[in-house]
Design a protein that fits this description.
Order of helices and strands: EHEEEHEHEE
Oligomer: single chain
Strand order of the largest sheet: 1-2-3-4-5-7-6
Largest sheet: 7 strands, mixed
Radius of gyration: 14 Å
Mean pLDDT: 96
CATH architecture: 3-Layer(aba) Sandwich
Structural class: alpha+beta
Distance between the termini: 28 Å
Length: about 140
């Protein structure tokens, strides 16, 4: 299994399958997908994308970031879950983010993913909240330095 920087168009099918299964693929386009500081990672087994994540610059007032990056659209193909693909992807992301002098990475985490994020050192902040058509979330963050 390897982790690569990829284009947003390469990861949208998996975003759609896992994160927006009953919605049009257009809902998988994020406003900052093409921002010059955004990067997209994919874990691959051969040519098969097994896990994905998008990282773009966005500070958060609740967390008091100064050079924060937001994680969005992390997903693992159902056939490849629990094999370490997402954790390996995140470790690669931390390396890239540290080189960008990112102080904190944060996300809105679905309830089913809370334990995964905690295993990577993320902490919850604030109350549970709902995102329409997606479900309940907690804001989570990890300080990189």
């Amino acid at each position: 299994m390897t982790v690569h920087i990829v284009n947003a168009s390469e990861i949208r099918p998996l975003r759609n399958l896992v994160l927006r299964p009953n919605l049009p693929i257009e809902t998988t386009v994020y406003d900052l997908d093409e921002h010059h500081k955004t990067f997209h990672l994919a874990s691959k087994v051969g040519n098969i994308i097994t896990s994905i994540g998008t990282f773009y610059p966005e500070n958060d007032l609740d967390i008091q970031t100064t050079n924060g990056y937001r994680l969005r659209g992390i997903a693992t193909h159902p056939k490849y879950r629990r094999n370490g693909a997402a954790a390996k992807l995140m470790r690669k992301a931390f390396q890239i983010l540290e080189k960008k002098n990112c102080d904190t990475v944060w996300c809105n985490a679905r309830l089913v993913a809370i334990d995964f994020y905690k295993s990577l050192g993320f902490k919850e902040i604030g109350p549970e909240f709902n995102i329409s058509e997606i479900g309940s979330h907690y804001k989570m963050y990890k300080r990189l330095f």
